[in-house]
Amino acid sequence: MRKPILKATVFLLAQQVVIGFCFLFAPAIALENAGRSTNVTFTVSNTELKATIFFPDTGEAPFPGVVYAHGSEAATRDMRGYQVGTEYFLKKGYAVLLYDKRGAGESEGEYVDTPFIEHASADLQGAVRLLQAQDEIDARKVGIFGASQSGWVAVNAALQDPTIAFVITISGPSTTMLDQFTFQHAMHFDGPALDDEQREAFIAFQDGLYNYLGTGVAGPNLETQYAAAQSEPWWLHFENWGFGGTMPSVDSLDSRSFEVFRKIQYDPYRSVFNATAPLLYIYGSQDVQTPVPESVERLKRITALRPSLDITVHEFNDMGHSMYMRDDDGNPIPLIREDIRAAINSWLKKFEAK
Question: Which of 301, 310, 314, 337 has its CA 20 to 30 A from that of 344?
Answer without folding.
Answer: 301
